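Private note to self, pasted from the team thread so I don't lose it. Backbone tokens:
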């Protein structure tokens, strides 16, 4: 369990910059780009892409806390 605890810890640490990258680069790596491309209004499309990037950043931002808590729990488990 100690090895799994360490792996989860390092994944938790690594997911912090991943969250920042998803927030910053989210509109450029849009998974639903084909849906966003159908929106005719450019201002609305840009606002929706920015909002989607923020949601991706928040989603990925939840990973560090989850992984670090799991790491702690498994580290205490004997």
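Design output:
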């Amino acid at each position: 369990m100690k090895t799994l605890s360490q792996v989860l810890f390092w994944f938790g640490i690594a997911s912090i910059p991943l969250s920042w990258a998803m927030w910053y680069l989210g509109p450029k790596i849009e998974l639903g780009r084909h849906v966003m491309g159908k929106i005719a209004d450019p201002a609305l499309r840009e606002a929706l892409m920015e909002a989607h990037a923020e949601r991706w950043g928040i989603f990925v931002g939840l990973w560090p806390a989850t992984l670090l808590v799991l790491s702690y729990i498994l580290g205490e488990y004997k």
